[in-house]
Write a structure and sequence with these properties.
Elements lengths: L3 H4 L27 H17 L16 H6 L7 H22 L1
Helix pairs in contact: 2-4
Length: 103
């Protein structure tokens, strides 16, 4: 039963908009993960494609202090994605240079 106070209110249409946002990620790693493993698992294919002439983007998104900068730059003991990417690029360049030397 509808209370009398509600029945006396003027009838006004009410529109309720329900927004649901779903987010997905390619991968989530724990605090014991090593940057080299993350690079090999997620980014090496992208870097190799870039070396072959394709466009590639590595985009990291996350909450402040979640480890994005650490994962990108790393440390001396655990280099990040950027140092691993540069190493791969220069290794691939050396392969090309040596292949020209053989010809």
């Amino acid at each position: 039963m509808i209370p009398q106070a509600l029945r006396d209110l003027p009838m006004v249409p009410i529109i309720v908009v329900l927004l649901l946002n779903f987010f997905s990620s390619d991968n989530v790693e724990g605090p014991d993960s090593k940057n080299k493993d993350i690079y090999n698992k997620l980014f090496k294919k992208i870097v190799n494609s870039v070396v072959q002439g394709y466009n590639g983007t590595i985009f990291m998104y996350g909450q402040t202090t979640s480890g994005k900068t650490y994962t990108m730059l790393g440390t001396q003991r655990d280099p990040g994605v950027l140092p691993h990417s540069l190493r791969t690029v220069f290794q691939e360049m050396q392969k090309v240079i040596y292949s020209f030397d053989k010809d």
